[in-house]
Amino acid sequence: MIPATRPYKVRFKHEMTDNQGKTTTYYTERPVIAWDDNGIPLVAGDRHLVPANTYKNYAGLCEDDENYIAAIPGDGWKIAWKQADGSPDYIEPVLAWVVTSEGNARPISTDLNGEVDFVRPSSDIRMIAPGEEPPSNP
Hints:
This protein is an all-beta fold. It has no helices and 13 strands. A hairpin with a 4-residue loop joins strand 10 and strand 11 (105-110). The termini are far apart.
């Protein structure tokens, strides 16, 4: 058995038919815990690890999102969002930094509606370090 050191997930296909006979397909996912000696992904079963391809609805394997191992406070960092209409930048605090198993850190922020999400790299944003003055718009 080989430990899963990179995040992968197994997909399982499900089909559900409603009262009118319409079939809907959806997928569920499970993390790969390890690999067998032949490279088959193993997932957690009820009592032990199970080869994923033994399930009749096994639909394949895909890379999972980054493996987050820690979160640290935003500690005064801010994000300046450039506004398309030329109005002053929208500035919001970094709530936290999440750290991946590979040592990368990604900022998390919230919008005016309270939705929390990762800050995606973009030419329309600028990170503002603690103590740094926010940018002024012309």
